Amino acid sequence: PCTAQVEGGLFEGGRPWPGQPASLTPPPIPVLRGPRRFSPTHCKLCPMDWLSHRGKCYWFSKDSKNWTESRADCSAKSSRKLVIQDQEEMEFIQNVTRGKYHVWLGLSVTSAEKNWTWVDNSVFPVTGPTDVNSCGVIKGNRIHSETCSAEFKWICQKEAVLL
C-alpha cells in the first residue's frame, strides 16, 4: 500500500503537510506526525489538478488552443502532449472525457515524407493520404487527422514521481 511515514504520531486529516505534493496514488492513508523524513514507500505522486493513472500523470485543459500552442503549454508544465501507448490508455482518456469533446494528441505529420510521429519521436504507422499540416486528435473512440491550426482541448502527460 501507499503510505508516507515520518517519526511521531498520526497525521490528522489524511492530507499531506504544507508544501508537500497533494496527490497520492492510491489515496493517502493516515501519515505519522513528526520530522518530515519518509521511510521507503511505493507512492507515485502527481501535481495538484493532475489525474494519476498507471504511473503517469494527466492534465486535462479546460480551454482550447491550436496544436502548437497546446504543445507549448505542456512544455511549460514540464510535460508533453498525450502519447497513447495502448488500448487501455485510450479507454482511460475516453472515460475521463466521456467523448464529449475532441482532444489534441501529441501526434503530427512532421516531414515531407508525411510520416505520422508522436512527440516522443516514435512513428505511428498509418497508411493513406496525409497533408503536411496535419495533427492528431481523439474524436470519440478514434484518432483522426485535423488541420494543426484548428483549436481543441488537449491533454498533457508526464511520469508520476516515485516517493
From TrEMBL:
GO terms for biological process: regulation of natural killer cell mediated cytotoxicity. InterPro entries: C-type_lectin-like, C-type_lectin-like/link_sf, CTDL_fold, KLR_subfamily_B, NKR-like_CTLD. PROSITE patterns: C_TYPE_LECTIN_2 (PS50041). The keyword 4Fe-4S does not apply. Pfam families: Lectin_C. Keywords: Disulfide bond, Lectin, Membrane, Signal-anchor, Transmembrane, Transmembrane helix. The keyword Cell inner membrane does not apply. Signal peptide: none annotated. This is C-type lectin domain-containing protein.
